[in-house]
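Per reviewer request, we include the raw input and output of the structure prediction for the construct analysed in the revised manuscript.
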Amino acid sequence: MKKTMRVVLGVAMAAMMTIVGFSGTAMAEDLPDASGDPEVTLVFAEVNPIDTTIIGQFDAKFAEEVEKLSGGSIKIDMQASGVLGAEGDFLEDMTSGFGSIDMARISVSTLTTYNTPKAKLLALPYAFQSHDHFWNFANSEAAQECLAEAEELGIGVRGICYGEEGFRHMFFNKEVTDLAGFQGLKIRVSTDPTMVAMINAFGANATVVAYGELYSGLDNGVVDGAENPLNNYLSNSFWQVAPWLVMTGHQLGVSELIITDKAWDSLTEAQQECIKAAALIAQDYDHEIVEEGEASSLEELKANDVIVTEVEDKTPWTDAVADLIAEETADYADLWQAIQDCNK
């Protein structure tokens, strides 16, 4: 296989920095002045690389904008590439009340381990049919209801905005092209109960492996496959040891930008407004770059001889998880329907 190139989100991102930067300038004029407020440095945790992933660029945009909008009174100490652990580690630290992490970008599926049933709806397989479906939701009242859940439950963190990493797909270290070939395989999962249930419903054996150990796990046969958004599959070089990619699109990589209650309460009201404004700019930025980044990643994967199987008919996959979806949405039927009504 050809040696992988670093992901270049380049032209599209540069263009969006100009557009969003203009919006940020306009928004700054309406924000209270935080430039004279006490300086604060917030430790921000991210499991993925910053420069080579879509979601990393989302993080970077937020960090850039919040420093600019606050007049330098808020600085972000970005700790990326999993140096502070996995997303579950981030949340454990942040909900303890005395941890070292102030902010993080986490998958909504990670929140589900904290009994957040509304977040679980967003992590269900085939919850979103397209990028437009998700972004219609992200700008809806239903999204605000879901985003407020962690704060309302009092788990020690609060949601600031949404982002997405693109659709998630399956990849393997052996030839697999359909659901029949998926049966009985060991597939890497996190501790997220929804992901575990989904993989088992597909007929495989969900196997918990730390994200930082996934590359070696695929290489050594500890697991037969895993799933990720295309951009993360590429940037973490999983394709080198698992080059069979099946485009299941079984889940959209929905993320939340979160902050601890402790860090939030340490900010002035003006700084809090800057955090919220910067988050919305980053959310819009993510919206603009995600589809181009996804397409570019797929082209680079193909150029590196990854064997790509398109799934034209997803019916066998959706049928396999129909009971799981029905069970998990039963107590929140109205909210689930509101999410589905955003597909227009």
